[in-house]
Structures are given as C-alpha cells and as structure tokens.
Amino acid sequence: MHDLQPYEPGPRMPELERRYGRALVRLNRNEDLFPPFPGMREAVEAELPSVWMYPEESYDEFRAAVARRIGTTPDRIVPAHGSQALIGTLASLFLDPGDVAVTSRPTYGLYAKASAARGATVESVRLRNHRVDFEALATAAAAARAKVVWICDPNNPTGSLAHRDEWETFLDALPETCASATRSPIPSWLITWTSSRSRST
Ligand SMILES: Cc1ncc(COP(=O)(O)O)c(C=O)c1O
What we know:
This protein has seven helices and four strands. By secondary structure, it is α/β, with parallel strands linked by helices.
C-alpha cells in the first residue's frame, strides 16, 4: 500500500477558468453526448421520497431484464455502482499478494491501482499504433502465468476498438491461470460502462 500514489484529480473548473480567463466546457470526465434515456428523469423523481431508505439490494428485476436483453441468465449479471466498484471486486476475487496482472500502457489507471492494492505485481504492455496489442498481452500473460489481464475496449485514452477476431484469438491464447476483465461485447467478464458507452454494448 505504501507504493500506491494518491489519485490526482487535476484542477477544478473554477481554477481552470481563472487560469484561461474564459468559460470552459469540460470534456475529459465521461461527459455524455446524450440526454437521459426517455422516462429516466420521471423514474428518478418518483423514487425521491424514499431516498432515506437503504437501496434495493438484490436487483432482481434489473438483472432479469439485462439477462433477457443479452441472452444469458440473471445469476450471471452483477450490478454495481459504477464500473470502478466492479474493477475492485474483480481484483479482490482473483488477485492475491504475489500474483501477476497484465495491462496495457497507457490505459485506464485504475486497473493497475486496484491490482497493486491487492499486492499483485502489474506488468504493462505498450500499445501498438495506439491500439491494444493483444498478441503481446497474451504472450506476457502466459510468460508470467498472470491471473488477470485488464483490457479497456475502447481503450481509454486512445479510443481504439478491438475487432472480434482479435478477441477470439486472444481468449484462445490465454493461459488457464487467467481471467480477463473487459467491457467488450465478447466477454469472459463483461463490465458495462455507465453513461453513453453502455448504449453501444
Ligand atoms: C475505462 C474506464 N473504466 C471505468 C471508469 C469508471 O467508470 P464508473 O464511473 O462507471 O465507475 C472510467 C472512468 O473514467 C474509465 O475510463
């Protein structure tokens, strides 16, 4: 834990606007291009009187609806409050001190932090032409007998999207020690992102 660096969120908007002397619009914090889904505002407003109660914890209806939509069973749907929570859950589930996790460089930083917080060693593989290098990831995972490969697809920050055949070859090449965590449409584990991104998965 001593090696973990604190997260630096960067300057706040008022500070940035002061610095540049003009009104700015922030576009690097998962801002959504779309308004809320139809009916969402009304559904949230209808629940406001009960926000003092502990929230629903089984998510039965939600899990059943998602499972129907993507053609699986509700017991395979694990909702969470944001994908950060799921990333932490996956790290706790699969990683112990001394294990190896493999990720890309650069990519979303929480994968490395969540793995390191579990005491795992993190190996990172450089992107190739701003794209996730699946072949190199599989090679690194096999060499290190990695427990987890974290893949961000589309990759943050480059936005590259993997092809189906890249995924298939990659999943076939993984060592049997390995769980891969992804939010791609062809998952072994699927983390669906909130906001606009979930519309495309
Ligand atoms: C690749 C990636 N995954 C997950 C998250 C966190 O998302 P959430 O708000 O769903 O926890 C971010 C936030 O920037 C991200 O870039």
